[in-house]
Amino acid sequence: MAYRANPFLERMSERTSDQEFVRLFSPKILDRLHEDAFNGAVHLFTSPPGGGKTTLLRAFTPTALRAFWNARAGQDEAYQRLLGRQVLHESDGPQLLGVLLSCASGYADLPPGASMTQAGLFRALLDCRVVLRALRSLSSLLGYGSTDQLVDVRLEYDELGRDLKSIPVAESAVELVRWAEERERAVYAKLDSLIGDASADLPVHVRFESVLWLQSVRFFRGDKVVAPRRLLMIDDLQKLRKRQRSMMLEELVELRPAVPVWLAERSIALGDALISQGAREGRDLRHYPMEDMWSGKSGQHQFTTFAQSILDRRLDVQRSIPAGAFSQYLEDQLTPDDLGDLFAKAVQVFEKETERHLQNIRYTDWLARAKEGQKAVDFDSLVELYATRILIARSEGRRQLSLELAPIPVEELDERDSKVLGAAEIFCHDELKLPYYYGIDRLCALASTNVEELLAIAASLYEAMQAKQVLRKQPDPRLSPAEQERRIKETAKRKRDFIPKSHTEGTRAQSLLDAIGFFCRDKTFQIAASYAPGVTGIRLSQNELNRLRPAQTKTSEHYAMLARVLWECVAENLLMTRDSAASASRDEGTVFYLNRSLCAYHGLPLQYGGWQDVSVENMIGWMDRSSAPIKRRSLEVLR
Q1: CA distance 180 to 150
Q2: Upstream peptide bond of 605 is cis (omega within 30 degrees of 0)
Q3: How far apart are CA 147 and CA 176, in angstroms?
Q4: By the 8 A CB rule, do 144 and 137 touch?
């Protein structure tokens, strides 16, 4: 592989060779593919930019599969997974013919409209391209240099194939390649006739026959069947016109294909469905939001494993610092030197905030325990001080008017849960400016299950490692927690500042996201930590969401604008949605969590779970900057 100044800036799905792709590809994504993803049906993969759709599709192209096969001795993990999916065979090599097309060019050139002629041209163009790409893919799978070498390949068809109307049932692969190339030229040659001669002989198709052709054709080289399994992959559906996309989805589902058809598109194409009505799904249409691959009980842990695999593979191809695990260059513990004078400051603040409780017998044992803990100047003791402040504040909030003369047992301090400790740690960060965003686990959490965001942060960290070893000639390129956090916050700020330039409603989106961040800080940094470890999202109930449906927003420009801003934020991974089930005290709804990098920008924790209900009116005011939440003083004591 060629030398890369910063391998984390390389987007391997588009510019790398197949050998480089195989070397960098993390096969752990294959574990997250649904079991029926290779069954006959239409499978729709959606994600924000950088979610890994194109990388996943490229892994099943013929040249990539051949590269996996050729590198099997050094890529045992990927090889075994592809064997398990019956994509590769131990002795015969690739068994699946992956046919990949992109909608990024050509289809939108067709005239807009919904007439039968225009729809027929769209089908005709797609059909000839599927046939042409399938035969070119077959040529690559067999190791041929061009389709001219397919002269020794014979085509046979099942009963369905003999019913094809628009695609010729040719036995010669070379002859069919020639037909597909001529048909594509004919489509473009006849475009002007839609305005001129309406009676022109247009190459229009009445259905997407290429899918039926792909599932009915059999390829023989001699007496041996080649590529018995098929997979049609169509990327960049968001590049199509809305009517083209809708027609393709509807008609492909109606065909009930016997081969898997993978469609990939950016979430932006789903429009208001992202926040209101959801995607249509059924037996013949399966919808897979890529971010949901990492949801569930162990989802974040599995994404962390996947992310570390990506980072380690990238680090292995550079030469500026010694290769190895990316995590080994990220210090994940705060030392006494990192604490410096901050421990003494924390003790002073603790004593000031608890001074009024010195004569209260209820807290005698707790305060004595805190005094004893101050002898050990370390991070754990620091967190203990803040956890004790939190528990005292909670106890004060629950205090009854009844006379209580006995001290609270010190054992209750030991019964605190991980959420209280998490709140104590983010309080340390906010009040003492102690590093919080450091270590491999938090780096992976900051990615918000998005590979491109992971690589953007890692690229900045790698530059710091590289600078220490190459520019400053330091023998140890490891980054301290403070160095990591500085780089991470710089990356988060760039992401936040770039929002107005990269989104249709960017200025309003930035205002809304900033307001949500201020609101979450207001709820997080209350000394009782009522929503420990903190609030990182807001929730709209189903009644509130209903007000943002298209039928409702027609009567209010403010509602319509909020709906557009919200779904664009979700589509671009600036907000992440989670369903919220109904309970005895509230109806169902949707939680909108801040992107984790934006959490870092606002100094918030990275855990999920903490959210607060808001109204559509609240969000409209925040979006228009007319009623942004007021920043509360950090760790405000509510008396």
Answers
A1: 15
A2: no
A3: 10
A4: no
